[in-house]
Amino acid sequence: MSKLETILAQEVEAEIGRLKQEAEAKARALVEEAQTKAKALLEAKERQLKAQLAQGVKRAESAAELLLATARTQAKGEVLAEARRLMEERLLALPKGEAWPEVLRRLAEEAVAALPGAEKVVVNPEDLPHLEAWAREKGLGLEADAGVRLGVRVLSGRNQVENALLERLDRAWDQVSARLAKALWG
């Protein structure tokens, strides 16, 4: 082999070595770039999954809080409904008690005082005996109406005033229930 061939062979080998090194460097760079991209994608996906998990946990906590608040509200409503039922039950039992004639007379006096020129008092038929003497003394007519419960209706021409315990409870219920709720739950 001649010197020229040797030099050319060496140059070709050097070029091949350089190209091989260049190719290996490019391959390493591509592998590193692919690994970096894969790592970045993996980290991004991990962050996304963590965010989704956190959102899911937050939604579940919110749903649980809403469910709990709804259950509390429903339970409070049931307690207040039971309290009202008990109050109505006690009011309905008043006519059987000894104090009923006095309570009825006071209701009648309040209604008469609220309606100037009162002419007539209307009560439940069972309550007539309790107000006969009182109505006579006041110079008022006395009539029976089964529709009047736990109270009286006073008439003056076209005007009337009804003073009955269940209606009073109805009118006062918002305040009563608010005070009861405050006493029970603060």
From TrEMBL:
The keyword Coiled coil applies. The lineage of its organism: Bacteria, Thermotogati, Deinococcota, Deinococci, Thermales. InterPro entries: ATPase_E_C. Residues 9-51 form a coiled coil. This is ATP synthase subunit E. It comes from Thermus filiformis. Keywords: Coiled coil. The keyword Coiled coil applies. SUPFAM superfamilies: V-type ATPase subunit E-like.
